[in-house]
């Protein structure tokens, strides 16, 4: 029994050895055949051919980080739902109920975020409309 399980691992072991050998050969060849030069901007970060100017430490607004977090959360959720779709037949009705609850919670979260204004980063539409009506009438 143990030998049969051990035989199933050989293709993976051979594949892993081949991958490590290819990666090692590529890194070794690039070290041996690569150019070596030391110019004034060799160690500087690459800026698309433009000399770097200013400081790289810029301040971003908190809305940038909020959008990034929402993107990561919803992206991971999409990956989870994709995995569920692939194994749809194996998980059966309980899997369907589980993903329906999951999607329901996502919708509740999205509605909550819309309600508290977490996704409103542009100008306030109500204020603009109020100002527009005030200017138009007066």
Tell me what you see in this structure.
It is a single chain. The chain has helices at residues 2-33, 62-86, 88-116, 125-137. Helix 2 runs antiparallel to helix 3. It contains four helices and no strands. It has 138 residues and is mostly helical. 72% of the residues lie in helices and 0% in strands. It has a domain at 62-137.
Morphology: flat
Strand content: under 5%
Briefly note the structural class of the backbone: mainly alpha
* Main pleated sheet: none
Q: Mind telling me the C-alpha Rg?
A: 28 Å
Round the mean pLDDT to the nearest integer and report it. 80
Note poorly predicted spans.
Answer: none
Proportion in helices: over 70%
String of helices and strands:
HHHH
What's the total count of β strands? Answer: 0
Alpha-carbon distance between the two ends? 90 Å
In DSSP terms (H or I, runs of 4 or more residues), the helix count works out at: 4
Put the structure in a nutshell:
By secondary structure, the chain is mostly helical.
Index terms:
138 residues; mainly alpha; 4 helices; flat
Task: Describe the SSE topology.
Blueprint: H1 2-33, H2 62-86, H3 88-116, H4 125-137
Helix pairs in contact: 2-3
């Amino acid at each position: 029994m143990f030998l049969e399980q051990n035989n199933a691992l050989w293709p993976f072991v051979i594949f892993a050895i081949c991958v490590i050998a290819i990666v090692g050969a590529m890194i070794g060849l690039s070290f041996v055949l690569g150019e070596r030069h030391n110019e004034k901007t060799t160690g500087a970060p690459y800026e698309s051919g433009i000399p770097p100017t200013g400081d790289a430490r810029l301040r971003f607004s908190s809305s940038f980080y909020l959008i990034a977090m929402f993107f990561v959360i919803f992206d991971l959720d999409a990956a989870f739902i994709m995995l569920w779709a692939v194994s749809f037949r194996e998980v059966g009705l309980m899997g369907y109920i589980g993903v329906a609850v999951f999607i329901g919670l996502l919708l509740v979260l999205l509605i909550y975020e819309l309600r508290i204004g977490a996704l409103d980063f542009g100008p306030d539409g109500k204020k603009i409309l109020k100002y527009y009506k005030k200017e138009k009438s007066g």
